[in-house]
Each structure stands twice: as C-alpha cells, then as structure tokens.
Amino acid sequence: NGTGLGLGIARRLVDRMGGTLVCTSAVGQGSTFSFELETSVAANTPLPEERPEKPSVRKDMSSRVMQILIVEDNDINRELLEKMLATAGHEVTAASNATTGIAAADHRAFDLILMDISMPDINGMKATEAIRTSGGPSHRTPVYAVTAHALPEERARFRAAGMDGCLIKPVRRSNLLEVLESVPATTDLVVVRPDHVLLDLEQFRNLESVLTADRMVTMLSIFAEEVVSLMARLDGSVTASNLRSLQKNVHQISGSAAIFGAVHLHKSLGRIETACKNDDPATVNRLALNLEEVWPATFALISETVDLPPPKSLTMK
C-alpha cells in the first residue's frame, strides 16, 4: 500500500520527455523499471572528446592540515580512510564504533567527522544527533555520512539527523578531496537544527513542479489520512506484540514524510521506528506524544501552501 509517489513522479517525468516507463517483474524475484529516451545534442555543447580535461586531483588533498575524526566499524574501510588522509598530511583520530566516536567528539574539536551509517552499537544518524545535541567542542563540526546506500530518501534522513553530506563507499580520493575542499576554515558555524524545520519548502516546491495540482492534493490527502491513522495506533497502548507491524507502518509513512519535505515529522517518525526496532514499547508510547504537536503544525503549514481539506479523522486543537 502507500501513496506510490516514486513511480508516479518517475512516469510523469519520463512521459514529459517523450519516453515510456517499462516494468518487468517475476514472482519471488522482484521488479525492474526502465525507460529509454531519444535526445539531441545541445548546439553549444561540445562532444565528450572536445570537452576540456578536468584538472587532476591535487595530491595534497586540501592545502591546510585538518583534524579529522573517522567513525567506522569496518577495519578495512577505516584503515583505507586513515591512510588516504594521513598520507595527505592530515591528523586523524579513528573510532571503531559509534560510542567511542561520540566520546571523541565530546572530548575535542574536529574540523571534519566522517561517520559510517551502519554500525552495530549505534547507527551513524543517531551518533550524529548525539554529537549535535551534546553542546561539546565538535557539536558544530561538519559530519559526512559514509555509506554504500544513498537514495534520495536516505539522504533526506541523513540531513534530518544533522549530517552535512554523503560519501559513497568505496570512497575515492577524488570524492574525498571534494569534501575536504568544502569544509570551512573554521568550525564556528551557524547550525540550524533540522529537527525544528517543519517543512522543506524547496523539496515541497519540487514536487509541485512535477505533479499536477489535483494529483498533489490527492497525494497529500492520502498522506494525511495515513498519518492520522498511524496516530490512532499510537494511542499510548502500544505493546511488544504489535511492534513489528507498527514498525513497517511507521517506516512507510516516514518515507512519505521525507518525500513531501516534512522534516520534523520525518525525524519524529524515525525515532519511533528505531524504538520499534529496539523492542521498546515504552519509548514508542513516549515519543508518540510528540506527534500530537508536530503533525497538526505540519498539516497547518502544508494547508497554507496547498488548498488541502483536513483528513476526516483529524481534530485540530
């Protein structure tokens, strides 16, 4: 079930460009979606062989010495990152798990933190949130996710957790250079807490530019009904017996929230999903109380942007 936003948007974009979206599917194996487009070469665009060569990656990997914290549980990945940075003259501190990484960030100020996403003790997003809210010497340091998976909705979750960017595994020196060059000379940055942003208007406007007005209203109405239905399930009586089905429900709606740019709602649902994964119904019930404030405020802001009727079961207080 769900809103089916991804395929709907993809089909509309492909249709606009004169192509056709094709699906092949096999039971028990999965589905593949593909498309073909015929395009012409822009008049003023040089052919690939005529393009000027890109400047080679500088060997120094940033002209200044940086203090860098690596938080990575995989020994090989951690060692490779250490060597790439250390041989370029940077001072590296390495942590093999999130707990150690959080402690290191609380102990001293770093210029950059490279944070693995999937770790056994605490995932990279939760570790970043802990660093951001600690008030410690590195709470404003740029944090980059290091992961093999970075779909748009995942990148949105990284941003909502307070991360500044993403490096895809296996990490290439050229990509690492781009990150190092983007880091400011000082970590005294003004950090806007993403969890307090109700609606990412840029993301919301992007959807509006792709969907028709009627389709946008339909999708948002379905989304609103799903949120309200979920809140009815999160009535303070969640027990361990229904955590698994609840987790799937929360995960699906959290993804929709990210697509619509409902940052605070997405973040709140992410915390509830984590509590479900941790078999912690007490925390689920406690976190659910936050939705009673976040959702009405989010819906009100969306309604100011789109003429949206309230869901049947929504009671605005």
UniProtKB/TrEMBL annotation:
Primary site of residence: membrane
GO CC list: plasma membrane
The keyword Nucleotide-binding appears for this protein: yes
PANTHER family (alphabetical): HYBRID SIGNAL TRANSDUCTION HISTIDINE KINASE J
BP terms from Gene Ontology: phosphorelay signal transduction system
Ribosomal protein recorded as keyword: no
GO molecular function term, any single one: ATP binding
Protein name: Histidine kinase
Residue ranges of domain Response regulatory in the record: 67-184
Protein species of origin: marine sediment metagenome
Coiled-coil features, chain-numbered ranges: none
